[in-house]
From TrEMBL, chains A, B:
Protein name: AcrR family transcriptional regulator
Keyword annotations of the record: DNA-binding, Transcription, Transcription regulation
DNA-binding region boundaries: 31-50
Molecular function per GO: DNA-binding transcription factor activity; transcription cis-regulatory region binding
Keyword DNA damage found: no
Amino acid sequence: MTRAETAATTRRALIRAASELLDEGGPDAVTLRAVGARAGVSRGAPYGHFENKDHLLTQLAVNAWNSLAEEAARLRANLEIPVRARLEGGLLALIAVARRQPHLFALMFSTPANTPVAVEAADRVASEFLALVADVVGEADAPRYGALLMSSAYGIAGMELGGHLTKETWHVSVEQLVHMLVDHTPPGPGEPGRAG
Amino acid sequence: MTRAETAATTRRALIRAASELLDEGGPDAVTLRAVGARAGVSRGAPYGHFENKDHLLTQLAVNAWNSLAEEAARLRANLEIPVRARLEGGLLALIAVARRQPHLFALMFSTPANTPVAVEAADRVASEFLALVADVVGEADAPRYGALLMSSAYGIAGMELGGHLTKETWHVSVEQLVHMLVDHTPPGPGEPGRAG
DNA sequence: CCACCTTACTTGACAATGTCATCTGAAATG
DNA sequence: CATTTCAGATGACATTGTCAAGTAAGGTGG
């Protein structure tokens, strides 16, 4: 392997290791020593690829934002499903991160990841979501609806994550949310379903 | 001062010191040594009052939740203002914490504070909010509306905090949120105002 | 093929921090 | 006043982020 290749491989291994450790044991489990060990290198190696630990964590957040942006773009391009379902899919994608990788979700919205790079990546996601909303309510109203929808989806995810939506009565569905905000109707009859 | 009095005073001083350090310098500034120093005691003193650092931080979160619960209860009891305004006030109180004490807000919803005690305190807030909602939409519909309203308010606060609602077009107001969700109408005409 | 340079990575070291065992002095008790 | 109790102080230790110095393998010129 050429030198540049080994370096790139190591960098990927470091990111992968950090991501796995975050998912498995939360933020406290992500020590540079543990990351290095899992990546097959030693504790100081990350400094050859990232300015410091925060930059490594920020990279995890940026990757997550980029994945979300890609998924939103994919959804929008999929003309086989109705616009409404595409929008709901985008919101659910955000919530899915909170469910599948709660620590990563927390990282995406936490201070260490609030560097300009991460905010920029998040803004790209916002743009994609805005487009999804525009497909439903039109360009003119998209910003107002979009902000409410994104905030609400993020809120549902975060509250659920913090254990504040556990009680049966507090379950909330994204479909309900979209229905109420976009169609301007009261919540549908019957049981409120679990989001998803 | 009797021994119990000095102990209680020290405990209060520790909580106050931790709170101030959190507000001033974020989570990293809250070291037990700094807390002790500001409280006029030494680094090991907190262990006489809290099981460990996390328990001290949890106490900060619990206090914040309790303040919110009190404010919601006060609002609900204030019959001089219309029910709608009371509900908006409750939601705004949550957002106000995010604006005035962003680090505290993050702590309230972060893992270290997700202990049973903190969740219980948060549940009391939820109950108060639920009552505020019930005063507007009735007992039957309160849970569904309440979950959406609380999640949305939390989402607005969190997104704003993370710098994801900075763009002019993304500003969102609580009044708009309540209006859309409760009255089932499209967002009002004209500029979307800043929440608050 | 060899001497030299470049660089990804390792290792030793250090300061900061959370935590605990031990100690101390003053309050409480009889 | 003697003794007990307990809030708080202090020394010590492991862990961690960080960096300077060292090392060895990849790359380059002759």
